[in-house]
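Most newcomers find our protein records easier to grasp once they have seen one. To make this concrete, we reproduce a full record directly below:

===
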Amino acid sequence: MPPRDQDEFEQRRRQILDGALEVFAAKGFEKATNKDIATAAGINSPGLIYHYFADKADLFRHVVQHFVPMISLLDHPDDLMQRPAREVLTLFAATVLKATENRQLFAAYKLVVSEAFRRPAIAELVNKIGPQRGVRFLWLYLAQEIASGRMRQIDPGIAVRLFIGPLLAFVIMRELFPQPDAATISAETMVEQTVEAFLRTMAV
């Protein structure tokens, strides 16, 4: 495909991703239609979406992959596996919290997660795109650190949850059920203190 055609292809693809994010944020996965997405993307034919994406699930997967920083981070796990624990955990935690800065994406994610409770297929889709990859990477990384003797002996699955738990609690109490002190704790401070507390817990 000539460069000009490739540029046009990528520009149109980005239009559809932007439009899909807007619609998913407003309606969720289940109620979003190709017609809604085409209108938001500024394209004439809803059928054109299938030229770029296999189906709605594929489109949603690409929306998440395009807009969520964590997905890009996990594209190069071998490099991360060689880095020191403080660096890796800080990068991971900061990336998790950074995902909440895209308000449309976070709104879409909240709606889709609520749908996941009713539809196992959506839960499986969301899990494969993000949580499963993140947990798997952390499990492998922490298992490596434990096996090397750099961290104390503990089930890697428990270690993963000890680390992720405070980050999820921070997001929930800031975004879903805001607490009075939510505005006084910055994401940067939460990342720093979470990593520090976890490394103390895991010290040999």
User: Anything to note?
Assistant: The mean pLDDT is 88. The two ends are 56 Å apart (CA to CA).
